[in-house]
Amino acid sequence: MLKPLFEAGTFLLLEKVFREMNYHNITKDDMLNGDGLRVVLWVAGCTHHCHGCQNPITWDVAGGIPFDEAAEEELFEALKRPHISGITFSGGDPLHPFNREEVFRLAKKIREELPNKTIWLYTGFLWEEIKDIPEIAYMDVVAEGKFVEELLDNKIHWVGSSNQRVIDVKPTLETGEIVLHNT
Ligand code: SF4
Question: Whole domain around residue 164: which residue ranges?
Fold first, then answer.
């Protein structure tokens, strides 16, 4: 039998090197994904596959369209508008391994160029799984955890099920104790 040219891990690496982050949409006056009016970047790719997910179309990391220079320009133009409070990274999962580098690059650029804008991030990962990533400190708020249909609670702000937490990142990192965002 012929030996494969590359190991599976090498294919993953090559795929990452050659493929940009994909996204589905940029919404520009969103009131449902964080405080104030927000720009939301809906990225492609999620490995969590929560039962009852409202956006299963976003699970495929190759779905949507490439997040290219024109998309970045559109994002920053929308974000600069004075009535916009900030950006929310959602999806899909912005912390899907293929998305992290690009999402963190954008978050850093927003911190530097638009320091008065807040940065929110939704992820299916638990805080405990991501808290040691240095770039998490770019975020103001992280809404974390998988959606659990049995724990659906329409009364909670910003997340869908009661296991999910909306975390105020700065005091949480400073104290080492989870501080929930005051909604
Ligand atoms: S983490 Fe979010 S996008 Fe991913 S499957 Fe769960 S609810 Fe859907």
Answer: 20-175
